[in-house]
Write a structure and sequence with these properties.
- The protein contains 12 helices and no strands.
- It has 278 residues and is mostly helical.
- The longest helix is centred in the last third of the chain and has 29 residues.
- The chain starts with 5 loop residues before the first helix and ends in a 7-residue tail after the last helix.
């Protein structure tokens, strides 16, 4: 049985909720904190626990954007049977989310053993935190922000969906990858961030459901799993509201000093042997 205590689950739930939607990498932070808590980060049960508590953060997205999601889902469904409605933005946006979610679903499935194995290393986390920070800076410098949410196209969704696959590398950050890609496509920060939120729903729900089987095999304790998921929901809800207000008037590159500082600290700890990579 994977040994995860209630205290561990609360701490990991807070970390997940705080970092899932910020461009600092939730998986990277969870890997670091799991190592700090003494948990085996390359253990299948720990990996499954991490993926499943992310559904709490996704539940927060669904609740926060419930009216938008209901409107988009209704327009998408109606457009399937009424061709004259297929030009509506909400109908098209529904397809954008579906098509944009396919790349990470395919790549995540095909690379599942690599993701739960070799990539679960603090060397990977440190490198990704530092290197992707460069992309975030470039994205902000080249951002025109001339296009708003209703200007999003299928090509935008596909490109951003492909870039989202890079977030399977711990330390990159799913939101950091998708928002950066949106900015490079000319979207404004709010539009890029909202699209990032919507693309996160299929991606993280799929990952959580896929890991349920692994969690059962590894005998991950149910109560800590429920507690971690619940805590991540509450904390993530507040994070979503804060981030949307923040990106309306601030550059995402403001997170870069923190990312680089954490990456450099990790390298120092690994080089000196203070912390082991796996």
């Amino acid at each position: 049985m994977t040994d995860i205590s209630l205290l561990d689950s609360v701490i990991l739930g807070v970390v997940e909720g705080l970092t899932e939607f910020l461009p600092v990498s939730s998986t990277g932070h969870l890997t670091i904190v799991e190592k700090w808590l003494g948990l085996p980060i390359d253990d299948k049960g720990v990996t499954a626990f991490t993926a499943i508590i992310q559904t709490g953060a996704i539940a927060a997205v669904v609740v926060y954007f419930f009216r938008d999601i209901a409107r988009i889902a209704r327009a998408w469904f109606r457009g399937l049977f009424k061709p004259e409605l297929r030009g509506d933005f909400e109908h098209r946006f529904g397809w954008f989310v579906i098509w944009g979610s396919l790349p990470i679903g395919a790549v995540g499935f095909l690379m599942r053993d690599v993701i739960s194995g070799p990539l679960r290393s603090l060397w990977v986390v440190a490198g990704a935190l530092i290197l992707w920070s460069v992309v975030m800076v470039v994205a902000e410098r080249r951002a025109t922000q001339e296009r708003h949410e209703r200007n999003i196209t299928l090509q935008d969704a596909l490109v951003i969906g492909v870039v989202q696959c890079l977030a399977l590398v711990p330390g990159v950050s799913r939101s950091g990858a998708t928002i950066s890609a949106g900015l490079l496509r000319g979207l404004d920060r709010v539009a890029a961030t909202r699209l990032s939120f919507f693309l996160s729903i299929p991606a993280l729900v799929g990952a959580g459901l896929f890991e349920l089987k692994a969690a059962a095999k590894a005998s991950v304790p149910v109560v800590p799993l429920l507690v971690g998921t619940g805590v991540s929901f509450v904390v993530a809800y507040g994070s979503i509201a804060w981030l949307l207000r923040f990106v309306a008037g601030h550059r995402i590159s403001l997170f870069v000093p923190y990312r680089v500082g954490l990456g450099v600290l990790l390298v120092a700890l690994l080089v000196t042997g203070t912390m082991q990579a796996t």
